[in-house]
Design brief:
Layout: H1 5-11, H2 14-29, E1 87-92, H3 104-118, E2 128-130, E3 136-138, E4 160-165, H4 177-192, E5 201-205, E6 218-222, E7 224-226, H5 227-230, H6 238-241, H7 244-254
Parallel strand pairs: 1-4, 1-7, 2-4
Antiparallel strand pairs: 2-3, 5-6
Family: Belongs to the N-acetylmuramoyl-L-alanine amidase 2 family.
Keywords: Signal
InterPro entries: Amidase/PGRP_sf, Amidase_domain, PGRP, PGRP_domain_met/bac, TAT_signal
Length: about 260
C-alpha cells in the first residue's frame, strides 16, 4: 500500500495523519513472522529439568549413648570422620540371644569395655547396635549423623558404617523380624544421606594388610556387606549373612526405589 504523506498532512492534522500512517504500516506487516517468534519448523528449547533429589529414607529412632553409658569415656584422640558413607558392614556381637531389653545397656557396656580396655581402642568399634526387639543404639561417639570412622571391619572402616546385631546368628539361628527391619531402616537412612543405592556396589581401598586384601587394594563390595566380606571371620554368622539380600531390598524400598 502506497501512502503520500504530503497529501495526508495537507488534508488533516498531523496527529490524525500519524494515526493513519501507523494503521497502514501495521496492515502492510500483517502476516510477517515476528522477530521474536521461532522460525517455521523450529520450536523453542524446553527449560532444563531440575536434577532429581537423592533417594532418602526417614531417620529411625536411636537410643543415645548417654542412655547406656552415662559417664563419657576419656578420649585420647579426636574423633576421625570420613567425607561420606559409601558402605554398610553388618556384624553380630557373638553374645547370647536370650537377653531382655533391660539387659541391653549392660551388654553394650561390656562390649565397649572389651574394645577399650582389652583391645586398647579409643571407643567401641561399632557405629550402631540393634537388639532383638528392633531397638537401635548409638555406638561410637558422634556417629549418628556424621560419617565417624569406626573400628569394625579392619582395612575398610573409612567411608563405612558398622552395625552390630546383638546376639549370635550362626547356622540354625533365627534372626528376629524386628531386628531385620531395624537394620534395613538404619542402612536405608545412612546410605540415603549420600544418595547411595543399598542394592548397588561400592569401591573401597584397603588400609590394612590384616584384612582379606593387602593394603592399597581396590575392592568392590556390595553396598551392604557382611564383616566376612572384608575380613577373615565368620561374622555376622551364616543365618544373618544369608539375609543380606533381603536387607538390601528392604532398604532400597524404604528409600523409595523401584524394585529391581
Amino acid at each position: 500500500m502506497t501512502i503520500d504523506r504530503r497529501m495526508l498532512l495537507r488534508g488533516m492534522g498531523r496527529a490524525a495523519a500519524a494515526g493513519v500512517i501507523a494503521a497502514a504500516l501495521a496492515a502492510s506487516d500483517k502476516g510477517r513472522p515476528s522477530a521474536s517468534a521461532p522460525a517455521e519448523g523450529r520450536t523453542r528449547p524446553r527449560p532444563r529439568a531440575e536434577p532429581a533429589a537423592p533417594w532418602t529414607a526417614a531417620r529411625p529412632a536411636v537410643v543415645l549413648r548417654t542412655d547406656w553409658q552415662p559417664t563419657p569415656l576419656p578420649r585420647r584422640k579426636p574423633e576421625l570422620s570420613a567425607t561420606s558413607v559409601k558402605a554398610v558392614f553388618i556384624h553380630h556381637s557373638n553374645s547370647g540371644n536370650d537377653y531382655t531389653p533391660q539387659d541391653v545397656p549392660a551388654l553394650i557396656r561390656a562390649l565397649s569395655d572389651d574394645h577399650v580396655d582389652n583391645r586398647d581402642w579409643d571407643d567401641v568399634g561399632y557405629n550402631f547396635f540393634v537388639d532383638r526387639t528392633g531397638t537401635i543404639y548409638e555406638g561410637r561417639t558422634g556417629g549418628i549423623d556424621n560419617p565417624v570412622v569406626g573400628a569394625h571391619t579392619v582395612g575398610f572402616n573409612i567411608g563405612s558404617v558398622g552395625i552390630a546385631a546383638i546376639g549370635t546368628y550362626g547356622t540354625g539361628a533365627s534372626v528376629p523380624a524386628p531386628m531385620l527391619e531395624a537394620i534395613s531402616r538404619l542402612a536405608a537412612w545412612k546410605l540415603g544421606l549420600y544418595g547411595i543405592d543399598p542394592r548397588g556396589s561400592t569401591l573401597l581401598v584397603s588400609t590394612n594388610d590384616a584384612s582379606k586384601y593387602p593394603k592399597g587394594s581396590r575392592v568392590t563390595f556390595p553396598t551392604i556387606s557382611g564383616h566376612r566380606d572384608g575380613c577373615w571371620t565368620r561374622c555376622p554368622g551364616s543365618a544373618l549373612y544369608t539375609l543380606l539380600p533381603e536387607i538390601r531390598d528392604r532398604a532400597a524400598r524404604l528409600q523409595g526405589r523401584v524394585p529391581a
